[in-house]
C-alpha cells in the first residue's frame, strides 16, 4: 500500500543511512522499524467500547438549518421521481397561482 508521510529531515536521513549501511531498500528498513516499534509498544491499540446509554424514549434530533444530515430514503425516491418528470413548457396560468379560498 502506498502512503505519504511527512517526516523530519533528520529522522529521514538516519533511516536512509541505515538502509545504505545494511545494503537494503528504504521501504524495507521503514517497514522493519515500524514493526519493531509496534511490537515494543504492544501492537495496535485496542478498540475502545463506547458506552451504551439507554433512554426511556427515543431521542428527538433536530438539525439546524444548513447542517448536513441524511435524507430519508423516501424523500430521495420522491426527488428522483420528480426529476424524471418532463418540465411543463408553459408557465402556470393565473388561475392555478391564485388561491380561491383567499377572499379578495
Automatic annotation (TrEMBL):
Residues 40-104 are annotated as: Disordered. One of its GO terms (biological process) is regulation of DNA-templated transcription. InterPro entries: Arc_rbn_hlx_hlx (IPR013321), Ribbon_hlx_hlx (IPR010985). Residues 86-104 have a biased composition (Low complexity). This is Uncharacterized protein. It comes from Haloferula rosea.
Amino acid at each position: 500500500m502506498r502512503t505519504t508521510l511527512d517526516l523530519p529531515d533528520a529522522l529521514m536521513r538516519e533511516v536512509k543511512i541505515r538502509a545504505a549501511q545494511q545494503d537494503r531498500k528504504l521501504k524495507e528498513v521503514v517497514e522493519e522499524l515500524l514493526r519493531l516499534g509496534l511490537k515494543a509498544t504492544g501492537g495496535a491499540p485496542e478498540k475502545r467500547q463506547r458506552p451504551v446509554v439507554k433512554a426511556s424514549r427515543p431521542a428527538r434530533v433536530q438539525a439546524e438549518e444548513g447542517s448536513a444530515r441524511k435524507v430519508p430514503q423516501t424523500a430521495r425516491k420522491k426527488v428522483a421521481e420528480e426529476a424524471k418528470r418532463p418540465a411543463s413548457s408553459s408557465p402556470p396560468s393565473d388561475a392555478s397561482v391564485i388561491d380561491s379560498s383567499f377572499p379578495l
